[in-house]
Write a structure and sequence with these properties.
The complex is a heterodimer of chains A (about 170) and B (about 80). Chain A is mainly α and about 170 residues long. Chain A contains six helices and two strands. The chains are: A mainly alpha (about 170), B mainly alpha (about 80).
């Protein structure tokens, strides 16, 4: 009885370990996700990125890489360009190229400024009440006369533009 | 690929060249702005004040202002 009990336990252990091995797979480590590996970047301030641009080389590219291990003078110009394109996505000239985006940006800005202007016009016409009476022409002329009488800003400002002898604005 | 070789671009002293350019430019711009302000704003203003006060008679000005009736404690005569 005890022996059979012990034997069943051993058998259970054997089964459980084999299950464990199948669950973990081959290596026993987690597969590294793509985003956690070093990535390729096209940046002006990173002249040599951490990885090459093309990760999975075709048979032709693999042969070219083998040829690269020999003397470089044996490579043709096209092969050199192909090796460059394997390593880098865009050249510096391509990376730094200008675009026409500024036209879109400027157009959008001006358009929305126009919309804002329309909203303001509508507000002035339909929403706001009348302006204070102190903005009327009579009041403003009385106000200016008083300012001139008080000699406001006589050196460079408003009173310097008034001719006190002739009682009119200076020409 | 172009058949002719491109001229070799400048490889060294790039920052030095940029710094020289920008130092020059910054110096000239700031000195220019200061000079423009001095000759456009500051000097004319000083001259205007000198001219105004050269033959300024405060009592005459006061009597003119009093006659116009702007003073509370000095009514017109």
């Amino acid at each position: 009885m005890l022996a059979s009990r012990a034997f069943s336990l051993v058998g259970k252990r054997a089964i459980s370990t084999s299950i464990c091995v199948r669950a973990h797979g081959h290596a026993g480590v987690v597969k590294a996700e793509d985003f956690s590996l070093p990535a390729y970047v096209n940046r002006r301030d990173v002249p040599l990125p951490e990885v090459a641009f093309v990760k999975d080389l075709s048979a032709q590219q693999k042969a070219l890489k083998e040829k690269e291990k020999a003397s470089w003078t044996a490579l043709s110009v096209d092969e050199k360009v192909e090796l460059y394109r394997i390593k880098f996505n865009e050249s510096y000239a391509e990376m730094n190229r200008g675009s026409n985006e500024w036209k879109t940006v400027l157009g959008g800005v001006l358009f929305f400024l126009g919309v804002t202007g329309l909203i303001l016009i509508w507000q002035k016409h339909y929403m706001y009440g009348p302006i204070p009476h102190t903005f009327s022409d009579e009041w403003l002329s009385m106000q200016t006369k008083r300012m001139l009488d008080m000699r406001i800003n006589p050196v460079e400002g408003i009173s310097s533009q008034w001719d006190y002898e002739k009682n009119e604005w200076k020409k | 690929m172009s058949s002719a070789l491109l001229p070799k671009p400048q490889m060294r002293r790039l920052l030095a060249r940029r710094m020289k350019f920008h130092l020059f430019g910054a110096f000239l711009l700031s000195v220019g702005c200061a000079a423009l302000y001095k000759f456009g704003v500051a000097d004319p203003r000083k001259r205007a004040y000198a001219e105004f006060y050269k033959n300024y008679d405060p009592m005459k000005d006061f009597e003119a202002m009093r006659a116009a009736g702007v003073f509370e404690s000095a009514p017109p005569k």
